[in-house]
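Re: [help] complex structure
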Amino acid sequence: MKSTPRAPRKATAKARRQTKVWDLRLYVAGQTPKSMAAFANLKRICDGHMAGKYHIEIVDLLKDPALARGDQILAIPTLVRRLPQPIRKIIGDLSNTERVLVGLDVRPG
Amino acid sequence: MHKGFMAVERAHPKVSYRSRGNQSGRRVLKGVEKTPTGIRGVDEVTGGGLPKGRSSLVCGSAGCGKTLFALEFLVRGATEFNEPGVFIAFEENEKELAQNVASLGFDLPDLVARKKIVLDHVRVERSEIEETGQYDLEGLFIRLGYAIDAIGAKRVVVDTLEALFAGLPNEGILRAELRRLFVWLKGKGVTSIITGERGEGTLTRHGLEEYVADCVILLDHRVINQISTRRLRVVKYRGSLHGTNEYPFLIAKDGISVEAITSMGLDHPAPTQRVSTGVPRLDGMMGGRGYYRGSSILVSGTAGTGKTSVAAAFAEAACRRGERTLYFAFEESREQIIRNTASIGLDLETWAKKGLLHFHAARPNLYGLEMHLLTMHEQVRELKPRNVVIDPVTNLISVGDELEVQAMLSRLIDFFKTRLITALFTSLTAGGDDVEKSEVGVSSLMDTWLLLRNLEHSGERNRVLYLLKSRGMAHSNQVREFRLSRHGIELVDVYVGSGSLLTGAARMAQETRDSAEAALKSRHVALLRREAEQKQRSTEAQIAVLRTALEAELEELNKSIEQETLNFQATARARQAIARERMADKNSGRAKASKGSGRGNTK
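Output below.
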């Protein structure tokens, strides 16, 4: 199994219980190009469409393999929209912005 | 009970063929190492188990028992071989799995709590998943790896991987990842089972066999004549010998059982001890001592020839010897058999109450052949009888075809023989058929074959019994009349005089005629004898009369002789006296006179 080169990035902002806050969790397994791309894409999309109303947590399964079970993670990278309900999953490197927005249920604009 | 049995079974199948792989450490050349599945019979079919450290594919259509097979592989590994296991379930969650196998006595929650098994339900919901760009299945690998490391698993089951094809849209990525998964599993050194749904014309719907190619086991569930039979076949097994047949299997109350295979083989012992048939004269036909212990006996005949009676007599005799006997009845209920055999003086009820005689009555079409076979095996294992009666085997034909029944019976016979159980099978022959053709074609498997027949003659039917064959003993070639009475079964010599074979009333009539004739003849002889005696007596009487006459005559004669002699002497004396008187010639006269007087004195 791959070793963790360095500590994963983690968004540290606290989750705010607001109606229009996106609580997102990005599951990665180490610093793979796909993971890096996914994070960069996610950041870009969030800043572009829901600036200030999102919260990203990055989970590195290499560090915490037990967490894969909780959100039923299979594919890497997987973005889980924990809030607003219902839970949605977007798998892949998030390179297709349109699909990500549909998946996150964000109206462009 | 089950554990004890497993031990027995595992100790015993060494007799059947096995790969020379992991069994002997002496061999320099090592074949494929194997991991025993612990599933009854599967290790015999595969020659020791699944390839160790590799992946095996278990495929079959819905409801064929794939998941159960895989789960039992894990449970047996955890409980019997100390090999913990991981179960990745794509279809059912942990709770459902535990419930599904609880009926088989597998306590999954307990095994999970004891860290022997990890159950991980992977839920893939297509509607929840949006796909954007590149991804891989590292998440699955991590989960699997984590679970394996958590309990030090040696066995892994992925059930059913094909759910991924429905859940993940990109088949290209999926296939690449599956290939990677199998390589990865091999690298982990775990023995794994991948289950797959059977596809049209392919082993699995999505061609998993492309990736998992070391061992492929196909499970099948067929319904023929409304009765279902499950079958198992090892389609391929790289680097190992394996049974290539389709083996029927069962999902029994303690797991999967490819029962049949465990008792195959022709290496059972042959005891010389004999057991009574329960009919003294039948014993007599077999050298006076009855059947061999551990032999198989076939009693065949048309309807109403007394097969059940012969069987019951055998069972009764066995119970009287104090041996436990198991009676499988496929035609009559326990009560019916007891009542009916009581009418011929066989008291089965006492033995049933004493616990020596056990009945197992079931309609043949209650379940499939394999289930019957299993039930019999289980009953035999539980009760450990020394004698078994199956009455009649022919009824099983309604469940399977002739070939299947024959195969089942040969396995059953082997099973009994290895356990030294004397087994009596009755077989119904349809009227009009060749009576020497046993209905299920099993006669060649039998050691002793009794043939019962009805002979119709002068308006009545009589039962006769032949001893068609009896291996390994001198036996009578004579036909016997077979009679059922209140005192039990009697065998009577048939009438074979004057070139005809007579039974029943005709035999009795003929015997009466014969005895009348004999009486007549003996009277005639007596008459002649008396006549002879009379003749002798009358002759003797005549002889006596003659003798009396003779004696009387002789007496008369003697008297005359005496008289004559006296007369003669008197005359001589007179003459002497005259001569003395005359004195004519002194000398000559004296000499003559002395001579004469000398004679006279002697008289």
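Residues 22-101 of chain A form a domain with the Glutaredoxin fold (CATH 3.40.30.10).
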